[in-house]
Amino acid sequence: MILAAGKGERLRPITETRPKPLIPILCKPLLAWQLEWIEGLGGLVDEVIIVVGDMKDKVIEFLSKTAANKKIRVVEQEQQLGTAHAVLRAVEGVEEEEDVLIVYGDVFLGKPELLLEVAKREGNAILGAEVDDPSQYGVLLTKGEDSLDKILEKPKEHLSKVVNAGVYKLRVGDILSNRDIQFSPRGELEFTDIVNKIASVSDVRVVTAPRGSWIDIGLPWQVIEANKTALSNLRGQNIKGVVEQPVVIHGDVYIGEESQIKAFTYIEGPVYVGRRVRVGPSARLRPYSVICDGSVIGFSVEVKESVIFENVHANHLSYIGDSIVCEGVNLGAGTVTANLRFDEKTVKMRIKDKVVDSGRKKLGSVIGGYAKTGINVSLMPGVKVGSFSWIYPGVVVTGDVPQKTILKPETKARVDVMKFENEH
Questions:
Q1: Which of 64, 261, 337, 379 has the fewest CB atoms within 10 Å, counting from its CB?
Q2: From its phi and psi, is residue 204 left (phi > 0), alpha (psi between -120 and 50) or beta?
Q3: What keywords sit in the KW lines (predicted)?
Q4: Rounded Cα distance, 384 and 406, in Å
């Protein structure tokens, strides 16, 4: 069971134009990765249930194109009442003696064999992951060596560095017999409350993922981290496109079909280039760069540790560093994403109504789908630009730009001043 119904509000502007399960990891939707992991379980799986909600039509369209031959049942969560509500909707009609493997829709595993380890564990099981800062997650407290005591949400004290990784194997009957829970303070029915009730009356084994093998894609910069994790598994040079000479390629690099790498381009792997991409002439791709299908990285454009979605145009004289550029974006000549503060402190980003420390010394911009920048636009570290927005030439962007906004230099505003009259 894949829980793919969430809105992904903390990931905006990325999720303004696509649902969270379709965020690309090496140019392939996260949901596609998860389905491949499940397919690798072979005969252990009888049926795949996908719970959809936000932008459900896009998820269903993706499934119809790429997974039509797979045994998949789609369940709609009409009301967004939380993860417990989603699971309970999905297990309707499933026999109580069956086991269900539950995967949160924002989980990326650098080691997919972890899924098999959880699935094959005797009885009920949960995947934990060791992280440096557990304060933003549900922490797993254990009794004995590997038996779950309870999940404690976002504790102020560091009681454990092993957190809930969003993967469970549970008996359906245990879920149903412990479904009587209350709404949480944030107004949702939390599946972790059901898991805690199960753990209080029976054994739930903890499987711990190695450090760096699990990414929770809940915040914009974690899209970069997930792609870095996937790139770390890239081996050798697999070049399916056309490479002109002279071009220099170092390290592990994948170049997809119908892509062109033009003369005097310099590529330092690990780098992933999708299909029908044009790079160069005289471009530079630095380590941990991902360029997705149909995009153009043109003359004297440098990309460093960034994820470029589909059909992005950066034709000339731009720098994209530690950034996410969503589909259909056009960057005018001289557009620069600054990624380092003068004081060299970690970069913060506004997430909903809070300022959150990314923990990254270098973090550029997140540019939403179909946005446009004019020539010589500068974006300061941690800035987000909403989808369909326009930034006029010469503007220095020091604060977030909302969706569907025009930002002109004479406004001297941190954000926008003029809304689009016509909705896109």
A1: 64
A2: beta
A3: Acyltransferase, Multifunctional enzyme, Nucleotidyltransferase, Transferase
A4: 14
Judge whether 305 and 364 are in contact, CB under 8 Å.
no
In a domain, 424, yes or no: no
**What pairs with residue 384 in β-bridges?**
366
238-247 pLDDT, tens digit per residue, is 999 999 999 9
Three-state SS at 157 = coil
* Shared domain check, 126 and 16: yes
CA distances in angstroms from 146 to 125, 163, 265, listed in the order given: 10, 13, 51
Q: How far apart are CA 407 and CA 416, in angstroms?
A: 5
Domain presence at residue 225:
no
Could you give the CA distance from residue 385 to residue 404 in angstroms, rounded to a whole number? Answer: 9
> Does residue 306 contact residue 324 with C-beta atoms inside 8 Å?
yes
Instruction: Render pLDDT for 292-349 as a digit per residue (tens, 0 to 9).
Output: 999 999 999 999 999 999 999 999 999 999 999 999 999 999 999 999 999 999 999 9
Cβ atoms < 10 Å from Cβ of 300:
16
Q: How far is the C-alpha of 307 from the C-alpha of 245, rounded, in Å?
A: 26
Here the tokens at position 89 are: 């909707």
HSE, CB side, 13 Å, CA atoms: give it for residue 31: 29
The H or E element spanning position 228 is helix 220-231
Beta-carbon-side half-sphere exposure of residue 226 (alpha carbons within 13 Å): 24
